[in-house]
Automatic annotation (TrEMBL):
<keyword id="KW-0808">Transferase</keyword>
<dbReference type="GO" id="GO:0005576">
    <property type="term" value="C:extracellular region"/>
</dbReference>
<protein>
    <submittedName>
        <fullName>Ig-like domain-containing protein</fullName>
    </submittedName>
</protein>
<dbReference type="GO" id="GO:0018104">
    <property type="term" value="P:peptidoglycan-protein cross-linking"/>
</dbReference>
<dbReference type="InterPro" id="IPR005490">
    <property type="entry name" value="LD_TPept_cat_dom"/>
</dbReference>
<keyword id="KW-0732">Signal</keyword>
<dbReference type="GO" id="GO:0071972">
    <property type="term" value="F:peptidoglycan L,D-transpeptidase activity"/>
</dbReference>
<dbReference type="InterPro" id="IPR041280">
    <property type="entry name" value="Big_10"/>
</dbReference>
<feature type="domain" description="L,D-TPase catalytic">
    <location>
        <begin position="251"/>
        <end position="387"/>
    </location>
</feature>
<feature type="active site" description="Nucleophile">
    <location>
        <position position="355"/>
    </location>
</feature>
<keyword id="KW-0449">Lipoprotein</keyword>
<keyword id="KW-0564">Palmitate</keyword>
<keyword id="KW-0012">Acyltransferase</keyword>
<keyword id="KW-0133">Cell shape</keyword>
<dbReference type="Pfam" id="PF03734">
    <property type="entry name" value="YkuD"/>
</dbReference>
<keyword id="KW-0961">Cell wall biogenesis/degradation</keyword>
<dbReference type="GO" id="GO:0016746">
    <property type="term" value="F:acyltransferase activity"/>
</dbReference>
């Protein structure tokens, strides 16, 4: 090949190479370059023509593609501008479909329920514009993991009717360091208009109550707006719900360890006086305002679980069918039926290991006994005030017993 022919061949090869680069790239080089069939100007015109034919529908998927620590509540959403949605599918990484609904105006879509934690989801969307041209969008995101999220286990339950002493008690599954942020995400209100304040007992527990007992027959509403709230470094809330419960009649009972009688009052009036047997002089019953937190028609009481053991390490007592038992403290104080003691002790002698005993029969099926009467007429959240035992006042966080703290001290434990 002559030098002239070789030059022409090199020029042709360069032109061809230039065409390949233009055709496979998203941006060109010198706009003045010429390349025959690979002319960048021709390609630009082709791109412009293709763009003019593309759908105007603008799809937006949230969370954005690649997100992690996404909310399980309301983060997932699809919206479209300049068009309408025609199909949205959401699946887990393993292919399990997630139900959802396109809005009536076909402008948005959201899942029908709460998502799972620590799960990767894939979203595929199709929309069309006014000219019927289709647009597509895809995204994948991962929801917050259990290690990076916290939840609050609360009492009472939604729809429950409780006594006037029932606080709203929330126990978090992880220690909270940003207490103010978390407390601001919780509101508790009463239909009676009572001021309600939260008190942190520790990094995992906050209780809410008014200054005095709840107003009878009122409604209390708990709102948790903790979704996305940072409770501690790298740990976020996931709950978003509203809970309502009803306050029943005002029943407060007064146990007097000296007279060995309990007066049951409603709206301040005594409706019944019941003989009792409180803690013995060696095992006095706590004093103070105690709230019934659990009810058991029958339950086992083993002294070993609360520190009453004999020389062999066995419980000083182990009664497997204690009737009509209602818990007053986390540490084991109950007011319950007693069928094993002589009937003569009630109203006369304090004999228990710290509980308050009422006369009862074995099997918890005799509705005529004082213990059955009290059990059947009591609600979770009713108050039992124990007096004149000679023991210390029950700690406010030992059960649901925050009423044993002054209002000033209670408010001092708020983070907001």
């Amino acid at each position: 090949m002559t030098d002239g022919k070789r030059r022409k061949g090199l020029v042709a090869a360069s032109a061809l190479l230039g065409g390949v680069l233009v055709l496979t790239g998203c941006s060109g080089g010198d706009s003045d370059a010429k390349g025959g069939d690979g002319d960048s100007t021709s390609q630009a015109k082709a791109d412009e023509a293709a763009a003019q034919k593309a759908s105007e529908a603008d799809i937006k998927i949230t969370p954005k593609d690649g997100s992690d620590n996404a909310s399980i509540n309301n983060a997932a959403k699809v919206v479209v501008a300049k068009g309408t949605l025609t199909d949205v599918t959401m699946t887990t990484a393993s292919g399990t479909a997630v139900s959802g609904r396109i809005s009536a105006d076909k402008k948005s879509w959201a899942p029908s329920g709460q998502l799972e934690r620590a799960t990767t989801y894939k979203v595929a969307v199709t929309a069309k514009d006014a000219k019927g041209r289709a647009a597509h969008e895809n995204a994948s995101f991962t929801t917050v993991s259990q290690a990076h999220s916290f939840i609050g286990n609360f009492t009472p339950d939604n729809g429950q009717t409780v006594g006037v002493g029932m606080p709203v008690s929330i126990n978090f599954d992880k220690a909270i360091t940003n207490k103010a942020a978390v407390q601001k995400g919780i509101t508790v209100t009463s239909s009676a208009g009572q001021e309600v304040v939260g008190h942190w007992f520790n990094a995992n527990r906050i209780d809410f109550r008014p200054e005095k007992y709840w107003t009878e027959n009122s409604t209390v509403t708990l709102k948790l707006a903790l979704d996305g709230v940072q409770g501690a470094s790298g740990v976020y809330g996931v709950q978003q719900k509203t809970v309502t419960f009803k306050i029943g009649r005002n029943q407060v009972s007064y146990v007097d360890a000296q007279t060995k009688q309990m007066k049951v009052t409603q709206d301040g009036k005594t409706i019944k006086t019941i003989p009792i047997s409180a803690g013995s002089p060696e095992n006095k019953t706590y004093e103070g305002q105690m709230v019934i937190s659990e009810k058991f028609k029958e339950t086992r009481m083993n002294g070993a679980t609360v520190g009453f053991t004999d020389d062999d390490g066995k419980g000083e007592y182990d009664i497997k069918d204690v009737p009509h038992a209602m818990r007053l403290s986390s540490s084991g104080t109950f007011i319950h039926g007693n069928y094993w003691g002589a009937k003569s002790i009630f109203g006369a002698v304090n004999t228990s290991h710290g509980c308050v005993g009422l006369s009862d029969t074995k099997g918890a099926n005799d509705s005529s006994t004082p213990a059955a009467w009290f059990y059947n007429g009591s609600l979770i959240g009713d108050v039992v005030v124990v007096q004149n035992t000679g023991d210390k006042t029950v700690a406010p966080d030992n059960g649901l017993n925050g009423w044993n703290m002054s209002w000033a001290d209670w408010k001092a434990g708020s983070a907001v």
